[in-house]
Amino acid sequence: GENVEQHPSTLSVQEGDSAVIKCTYSDSASNYFPWYKQELGKRPQLIIDIRSNVGEKKDQRIAVTLNKTAKHFSLHITETQPEDSAVYFCAASIGGGSQGNLIFGKGTKLSVKP
Amino acid sequence: NAGVTQTPKFQVLKTGQSMTLQCAQDMNHEYMSWYRQDPGMGLRLIHYSVGAGITDQGEVPNGYNVSRSTTEDFPLRLLSAAPSQTSVYFCASSSPGQGNYGYTFGSGTRLTVV
After folding, report:
1. How far is CA B86 from CA B9, B37, B58, B74, B82, in A?
2. Residues of chain A positioned with their CB less than 8 A from the CB of B96
């Protein structure tokens, strides 16, 4: 079945450094790729997403890149701050996305040390 | 606009008991789903619905039932609770028919089965 692999599972950086989380997906029909941030004890929150017709998208300190040929996408966080510490999940739509289902990676726990 | 509302927030069940987790959304989203979140496993799809009267199974449906009698409500029923169902459950909704593929999550239900 469809699968999303996410790496690394844990990531520790110094405040001010950049962080990169990578995901690969198996369904070549996937066309929507969101990223979620989940703080301890809270619900996942959508922080950025990208569609398959776009190669890169930025929103202030976060950016997402997509390589459809290689079937991988990445989250980039620049100038990290302690409040960026959380678990980050990538996801990919199953098929073209019209049905609504997303398949999630297993998450990356990001720790930003002050 | 309350978004996605889940109740209860916490629940302890004895093995063999049944219960219903409630989920309601006020955004007129046609798509609703239930995920369970276990440590190191990410978010796994239990059941989903693409509209009132329509439900389907996800990746881990065994032991759970759902119904969708209205657009707003999507309850999840545990038929006979087992310790393996100890998890955090999230309800999510979206509107792919309107081009809104990103999920809005409820605040979660932490369920313990003893």
Report:
1. 14, 10, 18, 20, 8
2. 97-100
